[in-house]
Write a structure and sequence with these properties.
The protein has 151 residues and is mainly alpha-helical. The protein has a single domain (11-150), classed as Winged helix-like DNA-binding domain superfamily/Winged helix DNA-binding domain (Arc Repressor Mutant, subunit A). The chain has helices spanning 10-34, 41-52, 60-67, 71-83, 105-127, 132-150; strands at 57-59, 87-92, 95-103. The radius of gyration is 19 Å and the shape is globular.
Length: 151
Amino acid sequence: MTQDSPWLSAAQQQAWRHWIALGTSLPAALNRALQESGLSLSDYDVLVALSEADDRRLRVGDLAARLAWERSRLSHHLRRMEGRGLVAREECTDDGRGAWSVVTAAGLAAIRTAAPAHARLVRELVFDDLTTAELAVLTDVLAGVRRRVES
């Protein structure tokens, strides 16, 4: 393959197919495991972002950007989570057009319950079999791809 060719080399094709399959199978495995705690992977992602934010709250637009979600998707998901008592919406007193997404006590309890098993599964599925050198290479590769995608 030349640089001008639109096609992937055999090695690139093999790596790409693994990447695509992993992009489906890893979230599915994480979702299955989180079901025991009553959370979906999307719930977990929202709760992580909110629980790590200052005052455990983020503007809806900032939360959408942090999660790389469309605002409409996030709004629908927050509505469902709000119905389950995991998050609350609060009006911004300094900006009547905006709203805060806030993790509730129930949301904090849910993520604190789910996080240890989730972290163990991520470690088991992704990191346990990697050497220190392989982890460094994986980190560099993923950081590079992420930079190119996000630029």
